[in-house]
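User: structure tokens for this one?
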Amino acid sequence: MTLTTYVNFAGRCAEAFRYYEAHLDARIIFLMTHAEAPLPAGLPPEWKDAVLHARLSIGGTELSGADIPNAAPMRSAYLTLATSSDSEAERVYTALANGGRELMPLAETFFASRFGQVQDRFGINWMILHERPRPDGA
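Assistant:
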């Protein structure tokens, strides 16, 4: 069994996935527009270049996405990126905050040397963290 996160965009899925690919060391595995689908989706013609389905490899897992006309920004869910260093957390946070909105500044906490939350320019919520090593080594 596998768990995949699927995010919807209101017409900016390809732009978002390309941005993540460029700034988050991710790789687009698959991207199909409505125009490329074997059967018409019944959407208006202006949606022909919108993404029907896409998959992105990021941080050892996959993120899937599509464009849908009634997509709304995320409210109570976050994609979490755990980084291997403070500098990587800072770089990723800055990239995602660019054109987006800071929800919680990146800072040191009791559980992480860096932790912050941001909503990116595409409406996706992210938590960025570089966890502190636990004293018990777990």
